[in-house]
Amino acid sequence: VPVKTATASSVEMVNAISVSGKIEASKSANMSTRMMGNVKTVNVKAGSQVSKGDLLLTISSTDLSAKQAQVEASIAQARSGYENAKKDLERFEVLFEKGSASEKELENIKTRFEMAEAGLEAAEQMKREVDAQFAYTHLRAPFSGVVANTFVKVGDIAAPGMPLITVEGTESYQAALLVPESSIATVKVGADVTAHIKSLGKRVNGKVVEVSPSSKNTGSQFIVKVDLMDEEGIYPGMFVSASIATKSDEASKSPLMISQDALVTKGQLTGLYTVSADNKAVLRWVRTGKTMDGKVEVLTGLTEGEKYVVKADGKLFNGAMVQLN
Asked: Tens of pLDDT along 235-271?
């Protein structure tokens, strides 16, 4: 009987744990303000594509506008005093050179000029502070992406720290996986991950890039973040189940791994055909273990290096003569 054979060999087994989680954007920002005021305009909605620096929302602050007017008045007053003190200083410097003013009078004028200069600088610094606060009334996109959600409408009151708009980047995505405390010690940065996104019916490879050191706020579940290699069709929030390759102190080896197609069954017995030295098929009963990627682990009944039949072009039986292809 013509047969196709293979050689039984041991392979290193990769330990892995099965976990679940969800897809999230690598970049995500909940936009808020530190100013209180009425929402004046909302320029985007959920799903809007934005570029870095785009104006998302404006807030009207009466108190800040009043403070700005006060600061501008202070600057005008301080500048007037500065210009006046500068002219006095220039005049007294000329008088001092001609001997018409004493050194004490010149020092007094210099002191008054320096005070006026400091007053103008203080007023301008206050204006910079107000301008910086005004920046919080104009929320702009921190990076390019998509608006995931808006939490306010025109006319609502915006309070400091209150989430107003969520922006998520669209350049890259991660899987945020929850790993139980019993397994977290075996998960390392750089470990290979196979993620199954059920809603898309696809498997995506990735690598662990971050392992949370605490489970304080996640109910004894540690967050492990995985960079995904293929992001086509993925959206944040999708459920994902994943297998993370882990490392343990003890090396785990499979005794033997053979093709699953080689197995034959009779009742509750599982066996396979090996090839003897005189090219005869020998039925060997074996005990099998775990299966992986079309291969099955053989625990007993076969030794490394033995040839076994994967496929036969005819009916095999114990003692049949075989021809190796």
From this structure: 888 999 998 988 654 445 556 888 888 999 888 899 9
What is the β-pairing status of strands 173-180 and 16-25? antiparallel
Amino acid letter for position 226 = V
Rounded Cα gap, residues 196 and 209, in angstroms = 18
User: Which residues are CB-neighbours of 172 under 8 A, at least 6 positions away?
Assistant: 25, 26, 27, 227, 228, 231
Distance of CA 306 to the CA centre of its chain: 48
Q: Which of 189, 150, 149, 197 is nearest to 173 (CA)?
A: 197
Rounded to 5 degrees, φ, ψ at 120 are -65, -40
Report yes or no: 257 and 10 within 8 Å, Cβ to Cβ.
Answer: yes
Structure tokens at 275: 């090839």
In this structure, the chain runs to a length of 325
- Cβ contacts of residue 295 below 8 Å, gap of 6+? 257, 258, 259, 260
Q: How far apart are CA 87 and CA 102, in angstroms?
A: 17
- How many angstroms separate the CA atoms of 129 and 118, rounded? 16
Task: Give the separation between CA 202 and CA 215, rounded to whole angstroms.
Answer: 30
The tokens describing 199, both together, are 């809603």
Partners of 28 in beta bridges: 168
pTM listed for this prediction: 0.53
- One DSSP character per residue, 265-323 reads EETTEEEEEEE-TTSBEEEEE-EEEEEETTEEEEEES--TT-EEEEEESS---TT-B-E
CB 264 within 8 A of CB 271: yes
